[in-house]
Amino acid sequence: HVQLVESGGGSVQAGESLTLSCAAAGFSVNTYGMAWFRQAPGQERKGVASIDSDGSVTYAETLPVKGRFTISKDSAANTLYLQMDNLKTDDTAMYYCAADPGGFRLWQRTYNFWGLGTQVTVS
Length: 123
Prior knowledge:
Elements: E1 3-7, E2 10-12, E3 18-25, E4 33-39, E5 46-51, E6 57-59, E7 69-74, E8 79-84, E9 93-100, E10 113-114, E11 118-122
Parallel strand pairs: 2-11
Antiparallel strand pairs: 1-3, 3-8, 4-5, 4-9, 5-6, 7-8, 9-10, 9-11
């Protein structure tokens, strides 16, 4: 069965970097659309970055992550990554990995498989 396990979160100072990982099981990351979403306390969950099954990459236009965050995947490790540089306090949130055969860009409703999340705190 499909399983997604996030790791790599933590507490850092503003300006520092973190790399989140999402280990996938039960499917190949090359055949599913995959994405990172985040949810800050009291806010709705929002898309951060995605890689479609054809390799197309999308970064959120409504969040200031372009140029600081990089999404990638490693087919050998069957893992999705999110490299986050120059972190800001506004990046504090629970970060979730999502996947689906029909997963498309940052459209949440197209993702049916979700991890439990990893917390990122920036102070």
